[in-house]
Amino acid sequence: MMFSRILFRQAQVLLIIIILFIILCFVNVETNKSLNLLLGIHPRNYWSLIVGIPCSWLVHNSWSHLWKNLIPFIMFGMIACSKTNIIRLISFCIIVGGIGTWLFSPDNTVTVGSSVVIYGFYGWTLFFGLIHRNILWFLISIITIYYTNHYLYGLFTLNNSNPAWLVHLFGFIGGFLGSSGGRMDE
């Protein structure tokens, strides 16, 4: 009973985040991407260090950018909700992914979008079963790799003019670090 209440609350957190995605996408599209400049990650810019890192993952460039991110966000988010504190995991992804992107992205680029959290969820899913020695979750990891192998490609598509691969890589690392934390059922 207690576990189902926790899971329900975590699903509510994901729903609130999705609503924020939609509202901010509407504002960003209607204002000609002004939120990218205000809330995006600009490499080695101190405003971005304070505001961009915690906020950039909520902003999307366009409706198609948002829709491409919604399905994996929901899918991986619900998987993660079942075993870990979703706010804690998202925080790991944002901090590690944001700082890595802020430090290593090329100058004159701006990074926005929920990929940092999606790749973090992906990293969490892949490593959770291994770290906690749980055969069921290890099998879920293998199935995840099989059906989402294009995400592995997104980790290593090195393109200096597009820093997305950096946010993917560092978000993935954040998810890995989050997978070693405590579980809800402990």
From TrEMBL:
Its EC number is 3.4.21.105. It is found in: Membrane. It is a multi-pass membrane protein. GO terms for biological process: proteolysis. It comes from the Bacteria. It holds the Pfam family Rhomboid. The chain crosses the membrane at residues 12-29, 49-66, 86-104, 110-128, 135-153, 165-182. Its main location: membrane. GO terms for cellular component: membrane. The keyword Protease applies. It is an enzyme of class 3 (hydrolase). Residues 46-177 form the Peptidase S54 rhomboid domain. GO terms for molecular function: serine-type endopeptidase activity. Keywords: Hydrolase, Membrane, Protease, Transmembrane, Transmembrane helix. This is Rhomboid family intramembrane serine protease. The lineage of its organism: Bacteria, Bacillati, Cyanobacteriota, Cyanophyceae, Oscillatoriophycideae.
